[in-house]
Hints:
Blueprint: E1 2-4, E2 7-9, E3 13-21, E4 24-34, E5 37-39, E6 42-44, E7 54-60, E8 72-76
Antiparallel strand pairs: 1-6, 2-5, 3-4, 3-7, 7-8
Amino acid sequence: MIVIDPLTATADGFVAIYDYHRAEVGALLGVAAIREGANRETRVTLGHPVRQDVIAFLFSGNSFDDPSTAVDSIEIDIDG
C-alpha cells in the first residue's frame, strides 16, 4: 500500500501509481479515487509488493490510463 499525504484537488479524479525505473514509466500498479477539495490521506492498494521506485500521478476526471494527461506527479523512492 502507498499512502499519499494530504492533497487538494481541483476536481474529482484519481491518484494512480505506476512503476518507475530509470526515468521510464512502466505498468499501472494501483489506483484510488479522490474528491474535489481536501483529501486527508489517500491510500492506494497495490497488487503486489514493490521493490523499485514508483511514480504517483494525479488525474482529473474519469481517466487514469495515460500519464501524459496527469495534472501533477511525484516520484516515490522505495527503500528495499
